[in-house]
Amino acid sequence: MPARQKPVFPQQRAQCPRDAAEQRPPLLSRLRPGAAAATVWYLRLLAVLNIVAVLSLSFREEVHEHNGGELFTPYLATAGLVSAVLALFLAVVMRRRKRAAWIFNLLLAGPLFVLYVLALTQAPYRRHVFDWISVLLTGLFVAALLLGRREFRAVGDRSNPRLALIVAGCGVLVSGGIGTLLVSATNQLPGASLLDRIAYTLLRGVSVGPLADRIDAVHAPRWVDITINILIALSALCVLYACFRAPRGRELLGEEDERRLRALLDQHGERDSLGYFALRRDKAVIWSPSGKAAIAYRVIGGVTLASGDPIGDPEAWPGAIDAWLEEARRHAWTPAVMGAGEEAGTIYARHGLDALELGDEAIVEVADFSLEGRAMRVVRQAHNRVRRAGHTVRIRRHGDIPESEMATLIKKADDWRDGGERGFSMALGRLGDPADDSCVMLECLDREGEPRAMLSFVPWGAHGLSLDLMRRDRDSENGLMEFMVIELLLRAPEVGIERVSLNFAMFRAVFERGSRLGAGPVLRLWRSVLTFFSRWWQIESLYRANAKYRPVWEPRFLLFEKTSDIPRIGIASARAEGFLTVPALPPLLGRHPRIARGRTGGPQEPVNTHGGTR
């Protein structure tokens, strides 16, 4: 008797092989991602082959001679650095699924494939196997482009065709002029006209192979050919940068966005000590559909970098995160969050982001702070020493400082700055702006009443402050910063303050746990590595400097989608914070960044007053 067949319930039907096959996407839909990935790998391979061909030119010429001089190469295979740079760049933007890159490749490779097919009708080309291989590879690339066209949906960033044309023209004139001079000075054949030398230079810019050998009147040394190719490649790289650079400076924080953010901070500013830094004017902002929450971010190198927690009602945070991630997908940006708190990190994690603990923020509760006790002995003695030296601290809101005095403080802050401008997630970047009258300034005055150091704090809700700026005269004595912080904590009722957020200590847990009894070998090794790098960067010293106030340590996290994106996010974060600077093109055609409204008379460039202390 046959076995009784088990009934299939509706909720189980999806597990049946027949139904699973019906739900399987069509064959073309399954092939599209692979076709799109194949175009990227083809471009990567061509970039490597072009570089290899440049370095081993003898092999390239041997193949050409063996085939009788009648051959053509696959798409973008010209044995030149220009093609290598172009292929590598196109591979990057194609991996990001940029629609403009797909169109560019199709417009370039499509007609080239047609020309190759027509060339095969000519007898000299049909007998060369390499020509058939070139047609096959180029045709497969075009077919992969057409098959994977729906995968390339990301819109462009900050394309500037006019700037790209100007850069291209200047690049051709400069590199072509230098190359023509080199060819004229080193040409080993007499009687070459100026037109022949220019044509030779331009052909050498495309390839260091036999392409330019068709100019019979010119023969230059190998080093000249390579130099010309490098110059043209650098010009092409500048053109690509002008076409596809990240959209910094276009969608920055507007006055209406700033007004709405300030309204949200008035209602929900107590939640995050970094909330006020969302008002930096080099950030953009994206809103939730309800308008009750927003995310401040900046795009750097294809990374959309948000800072801190979302601003506004936590119930509206998911809507703002969805909008931010959707914009990232639309532009093929890599999403990342720097310095998110635990609550926000949990919500970001629900949207598919992973978390990595960066360090801890030092928060001092004024009600719990005291200089009494043996544990505070060193701090108490340092405070008394500076006070006996005749130093005093003046605490004022920025709005209570006369404009002439504020101008003096701004000048001193610039003079006392050590190193370049830094700050993004934990720095406001504009000292003395009239919109920041609620910020608090601490000035350390010597016996003669001259400022020798200063601290500036931004509001953290109605009863908190968050450190923005630390500056001191390098000729002053040590301990002034600690003296000012202690004075602020002792006199906090004067400005209605209940808690103060101080510096951010990266990898604090490593230093604390790594020094304990029983710490494992990996933790001890990691602590040794960080201690070594602390000789150049303030890693351990920031932790030690803030631990003396016995703060509450609040963890801060880095949020990201894929682990492979962490190096790229790290570079973007270093650029945002000012630790890594990239040379920028000079402003052309009257395009200038948005400027801040200074209170010291006339507009001024945004001044980052962070100083790398936060």
Automatic annotation (TrEMBL):
Keywords linked to the UniProt accession: Cell membrane, Membrane, Transmembrane, Transmembrane helix
Where in the cell? Cell membrane
**What superkingdom heads the lineage?**
Bacteria
Q: Which GO terms describe its biological process?
A: phospholipid homeostasis
* MF (Gene Ontology): aminoacyltransferase activity
* GO CC annotation terms, alphabetical: plasma membrane
Tell me where it mainly resides: membrane
Which InterPro entries does this entry report, sorted A to Z? LPG_synthase_C (IPR024320), PG_lysyltransferase (IPR051211), tRNA-synt_2_TM (IPR031553)
Matching entries from Pfam families are given as:
LPG_synthase_C (PF09924), tRNA-synt_2_TM (PF16995)
Protein name as annotated? DUF2156 domain-containing protein
Protein species of origin: Streptomyces nodosus
